Amino acid sequence: MKKQDLFGVVSDLALAVQAVSVYPDTHQRVQELLTRLHQRIKDESERLKTLHMGFMGDHAIVDEFPFLGLSPTLIKLIRRMQERGIEKVSFGEGITFGELKRFVYYVGGGKEGAAEMRWEHITCGRIHEIAEGGNIPSGLSPVMRSHVLQGAAEVLKSLLTSLAGEGAGGRVSEGRDLVAAVMKGLRQEGMLIDRLMRLQAHDDYTVTHSLNVCVIVVAQAIHLGFPEPQVQELGMAALLHDVGKETIPQEILNKPGRLDAGEFERMAEHPATGAKILRKLDCGSDLPMIVAFEHHVKYDRSGYPAVRFEGAMQPASYMTQIADVYDALRTYRPYRKSLDRETTISIMKEGRGKEFEPRLFDRFLELLP
Ligand SMILES: [Fe+2]
Ligand SMILES: [Fe+2]
Questions:
Q1: Phi and psi at residue 177, in whole multiples of 5°?
Q2: Helices (H) and strands (E) in the chain, counts
Q3: Tag placement on the chain: N or C end, fewer CB within 10 Å?
């Protein structure tokens, strides 16, 4: 119930902002929405003392609850906020109708200019600034960290549900253990979360994809009987496999058509770039760096980057590659529809022993319902 109420506040804020950008301020719809929004914010800020909202990528966080998979109206609100440099807003107890109205007009791009941006019970600003070429400053608060973790948990849970297929209750509860293992690892590695947030600021999809790949690799590791510390190490490596994409332009990452030769060459740099980034970080082991470098090298040594060494690659790289291809095919992309599970599996089976390490691939298939 509480989460529902908080969602009501943010969706009413989105509606009010949309209304003031379309209708004159005397319009009945504007008045109604502002009155309702004021009442809701007043109720929640009295209950909580201060009502906090945060906006990151395509996600909103109200109080301590993350909201993912938002409606177009809410996404539009987040964009408007971002245009005005607002990543977080706090509404204090005692907020008046007048100041809320001015705030809504400011976000909606109405009459108020930056000069009038002063409110007694509202504060807003950025969560963090990302320095060129540097790390996210250490100012990232513990509260924000836990928000990222909760956001990640939601993504992981929904993925697990879809992996398990509808009505497969047993597998969903197995999934909860999985999430717990991944979350435990994430909590211990604050710096790596910073890295993911940096990647999220660059390309939201890559982070969702990385989380999906992480869960699929953790599932494989548990299925193969790895002990828990190794499961976490493998999960961490999978989570970070695409960090090198933070230097690839978004137009290439999300291009609706085929990449031309130059673009493909640029894209193919991300494994080496990722390894370079991870070499400088303390990931607890070299595994994330190795997996970042090797995850596009296929079992038959085609793929990229070109490798000269003989002998087997890391099993973690093979496992990540399987998860990577599975998630990529199952997800909608601007250049391709998402494929259903049967089609995905039948395409992937053709790569057994060529693209994918055959024994690990067989074990992976056992995981799918
Ligand atoms: Fe990749
Ligand atoms: Fe990937």
A1: -65, -40
A2: 16, 5
A3: N
Residue 47 Cα, ligand 2 centroid: separation in angstroms?
43
Name the closest ligand to CA 293.
Answer: 1
254 SS3 class = coil
Report how far ligand 1's centroid is from the alpha carbon of 87 (Å): 29
Q: Return the higher-pLDDT residue of 1 and 119.
A: 119
Full set of structural domains in the chain with CATH = 2-125 (no CATH), 142-367 (1.10.3210.10)
Q: Give the Cβ contact number of residue 311 at 10 Å.
A: 4
> Mind listing the pLDDT tens digit for each residue in 208-251?
888 889 888 888 888 888 877 788 788 888 988 998 998 999 89
Distance 191 CA to ligand 2 centre (A): 20
Distance (Å) from CA 242 to ligand 1 centroid: 5
Instruction: Give how far the C-alpha of residue 291 lies from the chain's centroid of Cα atoms, to the nearest Å.
Output: 20
Between the CA of 236 and the centroid of ligand 2 the distance, in Å, is 13
265 alpha carbon – ligand 1 mean position (Å): 13
User: Are 271 and 294 within 8 A, CB to CB?
Assistant: yes
Yes or no: say if 331 and 339 are a contact pair by the CB < 8 Å rule: no
Give CA–CA dist 76/72, Å, rounded. 6
* Residue 264 · residue 276 · CB < 8 Å: no
Q: Where are the beta strands (DSSP E) in the chain?
A: 50-56, 59-62, 65-67, 88-92, 122-125
Residue 290 phi/psi, 5-degree rounding, is -65, -45
pTM: 0.56
- Distance from the CA of 51 to the center of ligand 1, in angstroms? 39
Contact 331, 311 (CB under 8 A): no
Going from the Cα of 241 to the center of ligand 2, the distance in angstroms, rounded, reads 6
User: Ligand 2: distance of its center to the CA of 118 in Å?
Assistant: 44
Per-residue pLDDT reduced to its tens digit, 18-30: 888 888 878 888 8
